[in-house]
Amino acid sequence: MKLYKIENTNWRTFFGTPDEPIDRTGCTIIAQTPSNDAFLLLSKDTHNSLELLNTVPAGFDFTYCQEWGLTINDAVVDRVILDIRRKAYGTWESQLEKIYDDGMDSWKTAVAAVKTSIPKR
User: For residue 65, what is the DSSP state?
Assistant: First the structure.
């Protein structure tokens, strides 16, 4: 997944309005500045209208999972990606059920699809 910065002035252009939203299903907001003038998001897709980042800049508070704290750095971004992937895999119970109902090859295909759609950084 790629790390992007979006300024609040570009928010409507990128996400749309409440009346005319733009589908950004593959995007996850993970941090914001205290003044809400910029946000960090993760996306599997390329967005040329946003600033692509190689590392987390200073001045952002982590918002993806408050119980993890407010500090955001590259390790936290990697943890978020793993959390998103874990949720996409489903519970171990649902994975066992998939193996039982549909077979091991079907489960392997589903796991590969998650790995492809939600790549690590």
Answer: -
Confidence of residue 51 (pLDDT cuts 50, 70, 90): very high
- On whether the CB atoms of residues 47 and 81 are closer than 8 A, the answer is no
pLDDT of residue 70: 78
Residue 17 lies in a domain: yes
**Residue 15 belongs to domain spanning:** 2-87
Residue 97 lies in a domain: no
Question: pTM for the whole thing?
Answer: 0.80
Residue 8 included in any domain: yes
What is the number of domains present in the chain? 1
Residue 108: half-sphere exposure toward Cβ, Cα within 13 Å: 3
Examine residue 21 and state whether it is found in any structural domain, yes or no: yes
Residue type, 76: V
Paired with 31 in beta bridges are 40, 62
Q: Give per-residue pLDDT as tens, 65-105.
A: 988 887 899 999 999 999 999 999 999 999 999 999 999 99
The whole-number pLDDT of residue 66 equals 82
Instruction: In whole angstroms, give the CA distance from residue 33 to residue 38.
Output: 6
Q: Give the pair of three-digit tokens for residue 22.
A: 């733009």
